[in-house]
Protein 1
Amino acid sequence: MTAEIISIGTELLLGHIVNTNTAFLSRKLAEAGIDLFNTSVVGDNSKRLACALNLALTRADVIITTGGLGPTVDDITIETIADLTGKPLVQNKMVRKCLENYFKFKRLKMPETTMRQTYTPKGVRCVRNKVGTAPGLIAEWKNKVIICLPGPPRELEPMFSADILPFLKNRSKNSCVIKSRTIKITGLPESVVNNMVKGLLEMKPPTTVGIYSKPGQVELKIMSKAGNEKTAAAAIGRIEKKIRARLKNFIFGCDEQTLEGALGNILIKEKLTIAIAESCTGGLLADRITDVSGSSKYFIMGLVAYSNVVKENILGISGGILKKNGAVSREVALEMARRIKLLAGADIGVGITGIAGPGGGTNTKSVGLVYISIVTKKKKMVKELLFKGSREEIKFQATQVALDLVRRLFY
Amino acid sequence: MTAEIISIGTELLLGHIVNTNTAFLSRKLAEAGIDLFNTSVVGDNSKRLACALNLALTRADVIITTGGLGPTVDDITIETIADLTGKPLVQNKMVRKCLENYFKFKRLKMPETTMRQTYTPKGVRCVRNKVGTAPGLIAEWKNKVIICLPGPPRELEPMFSADILPFLKNRSKNSCVIKSRTIKITGLPESVVNNMVKGLLEMKPPTTVGIYSKPGQVELKIMSKAGNEKTAAAAIGRIEKKIRARLKNFIFGCDEQTLEGALGNILIKEKLTIAIAESCTGGLLADRITDVSGSSKYFIMGLVAYSNVVKENILGISGGILKKNGAVSREVALEMARRIKLLAGADIGVGITGIAGPGGGTNTKSVGLVYISIVTKKKKMVKELLFKGSREEIKFQATQVALDLVRRLFY
């Protein structure tokens, strides 16, 4: 079964809102094994909606529209469907009753315009809206199905999950499932990962691998379509094994796992504590570490040492070292890591100093230059890095490398 | 001039990512007064992309594609455009040079596959990608323009703003402009703002006002379409004046301004410095303050005092106060603010302590309870708040209130 989504709303074409409905529906359709090859957006315009519907009817079995079901004159979905299918508009008693109850419950007088929403094309099935006023529609016509859903995500999402998805699954009699697994990698650019998984990216369905570049990390998504969950999971398992053999410890996690979460698991397992002194990342490293629930078990303290005075007075770095090497230097990063470890009595100390930009660069030290140091009982290291991007991007990339350097202590 | 957007990527059709590129481009096109009536998404499939392009060519003057410009076999945009226009692929020396420099800068060996990105249809204009590897394209063909942009937003957005938009504006010679202004409000829920601007939200074009709820803030977007910039700006100015009269200092800024940026401007103007001690927000407040370029002028230090030991040993809060009131208390928040101000020698001290959850709640102190204290030479205050949401949402809301409390010292 092939589906197509048409989103209706001038606010989408003006960029006032992001089309999260299409992303939600796409994900749900994929999980149900229903193919989706095209999605589109049109404004609140009958003629253009009719065009889009006619085109979709030539290539899909099920057309799902979102939006344009409200009570105002801008809402043109119902009339357009009625015109297209030649079904006259008739008042639906169930919808009328529901609307009357809705306003009674809210202790509000029903506006005149609302009555418009009680008229639907003759013979179509109305789907109750448990959150808002606009009912959904399921119109079967010439062996195709047109499904109309309300625009607000909080109305669309429960309606789709509760009523539309079971209807589609039943109709498609699709005995297939799609499962997926995302393998997350850091420390390598996309092009290098691409080379390392050559052959896998070219696989054809039912099992495929896609590569996605995200800030500071690369993700490989394995998808498999099969007759049942077990077969799909086994196919994914086989590919995952191959990917793990090639990328080894560049992989930090899977699916919903974050780098800071993966590091947290290691620190808990190893019963180790961490303390950080950051300058150019300005608190972002501490923020990411503490985004992990339970991080208080291993995170002792973070110091955002933005000025040299703080580096001297609180961390106790000698003025001589700062003066000789400058605040952005290998030596100061190392001292920050060493001294925060001492100050906090932690097992691991991290120091970060650099130039996040856009100002602050010099001839010898350009914007994006960052030194990251890790100090443990047994090990001392400093890494020099050069990042590109906006201030926020440089901050993020630096924290990504810092988290990864700590993680790699254990591999 | 009419534009149409075609987004290319199977990951969009699978719902793995949300199509923010289309929202961004739609907004920019609207602001430039360029009509957009249709947008669509197709997967990484040459045939379906060709179909979409052919359809778009029948109804738009400018077609903008996003995605599919990478070095992998999935990336089919360039070949499809070459086939469609009959222009052979030739190596572009400028693109080659840029790519070589890119890898040199990153100190990486250029992968073989990257070379694929140096081939573009003969005669098209290549647009430099200042962030990633894939160049953009401007192909003029049969009186139409096809513009190809890279998929990652951090590459697409600067390229569009710097190179594509000026090209389109010049070509469209559009006699109408759409201007907009976003008024940003914090400290009031959407329903209250909604009531306060009644009458304005119901305005009809050419000048309209929309209300949007964002995490920790509410935004009012004024839009105006007119024959020239001056008329549109004047119409917006009149409405803005009305909004400002009603919402007064609940408004912290406009358009691209952030709350941390607005606070930064105040601190620079007042020549004041700030230091913060945060517990439950875990570094997020310092991170937000230091996201502002030039924040080193007023931000002295941040301390993420996650454990009681740090609160005692580094901040010097007496064990008695901690024991008597608990770490999450009015008294400890005040001590954190007072002592970090002292430690840093700053003009303003901020202390935050609370329970970000999901764990850590008790019968008397529930998840979401946060105490925020501000201490200056003349003033001491503590505010008790109760936030709802995920760990990240609670952290964010607490920093939003903290920033706003400091801002309000000056109103």
Note: Chain B has three domains: 2-172, 177-254, 259-408.
Protein 2
Amino acid sequence: MLEQFRVNLDEAIFAQGEDLKRTAAGVFEKMGVPAEDALLAADVLVLADLRGVDSHGVSNMLRSYVTGYQSGSINPRPDWKVVRETPSTANIDCDRGLGVILAPKGMDIAIQKAKQVGVGMVTMGNARHLGMASYHAMLALEHDMIGVCMTSCPPSVVPTFGAEPRLGTNPIAFAVPSGNEAPFVFDAATSSVAGNKIGIARRLGAKLEPGWLVDADGTPIMEEIDAPDSYTLLPLGSTRELGSHKGYGLSCMVDILGGVLTGYGYGAVPGRPNFGHYVAAYSVDAFSDAGEFKTTMDEWLQMMKSTKPAPGHDRVLVAGQAEAEVEEVRRADGIPLHPEVVQWLRDTCSELDVACLI
Amino acid sequence: MLEQFRVNLDEAIFAQGEDLKRTAAGVFEKMGVPAEDALLAADVLVLADLRGVDSHGVSNMLRSYVTGYQSGSINPRPDWKVVRETPSTANIDCDRGLGVILAPKGMDIAIQKAKQVGVGMVTMGNARHLGMASYHAMLALEHDMIGVCMTSCPPSVVPTFGAEPRLGTNPIAFAVPSGNEAPFVFDAATSSVAGNKIGIARRLGAKLEPGWLVDADGTPIMEEIDAPDSYTLLPLGSTRELGSHKGYGLSCMVDILGGVLTGYGYGAVPGRPNFGHYVAAYSVDAFSDAGEFKTTMDEWLQMMKSTKPAPGHDRVLVAGQAEAEVEEVRRADGIPLHPEVVQWLRDTCSELDVACLI
């Protein structure tokens, strides 16, 4: 995440992760979510806050989940079920349940299957928002498995040369176990920037970079601009010359795996008010020795981090490293929250009669 | 592929696909490759030529394979074997065999496993060049399966902020079955441009786009330049602001799945003269009804292609569409070859005593 998208630390109010989690869990419970699921949902949101993925934490997402539960669009007690299954696969009807809560359950199924036959792959249709995709992918790590998670979102991104949004920001997350090094954890939208960052930029008054949005007629905006109220994003690569057909194609793949393959529609199905998810676990031992793999991953991670930097840069980062560093700081010092977010949280807790620990 | 990277049709010599295939197969046989494998290798190269993927066809690749066989770096009769296996996975030691020939065999194993348990996933270490990744992914289509193929290549791409290459161009290919529409076939390097295109640009005297290469010190070159003799590429996204950390992260993932996971090293292992491959097949029926899936894919493909275009563009394309269109033309009119390529092919055939049909 670019620095300009972080809350200004001088005006921030700091919350301990545990306090924020218990507070958020209280809000989920008041939405009708069972206690255990409420705690899980809060854990997913707060881990995003702890890792500096502010776009997917309590501050940026809880509000929209509350709105979704209150409007009846999200089902707090979904009767989710596996509708098709093979030794290595399952497809789940999520009954309008929040992906934040159901993707970990799908990932558990994938992990159990990977233990049995090497790979587990689970599609999840008729769902709601996923939260931070890497949370679910990382569940595979402690089993010496590679975790994968993708989600097909409602349209906000144009295809290359297109003037209308046809794809969601459709993120892809991978988590890979390591030995002593922080694990490789990749989590990124296939658009050139995650949609949530536009809202954060608006709140913080930050400028948007060139290559993120299109004009009303679909032309890529290649200069710096203020964050508009409504927007349509460009795929990763921004323009055809820079490779936007690749970001567009990867986004399509996510829409197919997390959408079409579930049998519950894809991002641009008119009126589809849902998200489709895809989670997978690959057992390392099904390919090669897990111990040797983790040793090689450490060597690989060190190699990548020790790359000589280009002028103007102190160091080369590898996916998951910045997040692990922020997590260490925020677990000690707390999570910096924007005063407006804290005010909303306090008001909401007071309204819902939830103990606010913030 | 951008138009400036196509051979000028006025000076091109046209070859029928079947003639080019038989000629190339003859060259492979003279390298010591068994007849059946030689025909397979020629089929992979010529399909690239037919689909307009000139960077991976006879014209751009056969020469380097001949050099590899002649120097002893590629083994024409590899004793390849499965070294680890589960119901859904296998890992293969390729014994320095050409990926062009062995990846279809790996894909066959993946397809058989997907028939049994839903998903098949095969890693292939100690291999040589893959050829066009989508060839292997497309083998899944006739089985109503989604095909995936990736390859970990020797380093030519910098990490974001890096001044040294640490990753290969590490392509990702996906092929998805459809009904009446041409299948979705995505195949792209995770660098902002495929390395082979630089060589083609040099041969054709075409300019390179901004955002493709770095300067000697690792700074992204953001203006148009002539194709240099040696070069280091940028990851997809080109700069941090445009999202190059995403292209970099995806490239890492390919290096892990096609490299580290095989147990035979990764792209940047000093002196590793090899490539590692990853192929997978997902049975559509393991998730939802294959017939319904293909109907929905047709609808999805039509939706994407009918997107209103932005000013200056006639239409929106979907991955695999341009290639299918070129294939139709080239199957009828022949494959346009650069005169220099034809001269090399004729000289080589004469030297090796191969019947040249071009």
Note: Chain A touches chain B through 90 residues (CB under 8 Å).
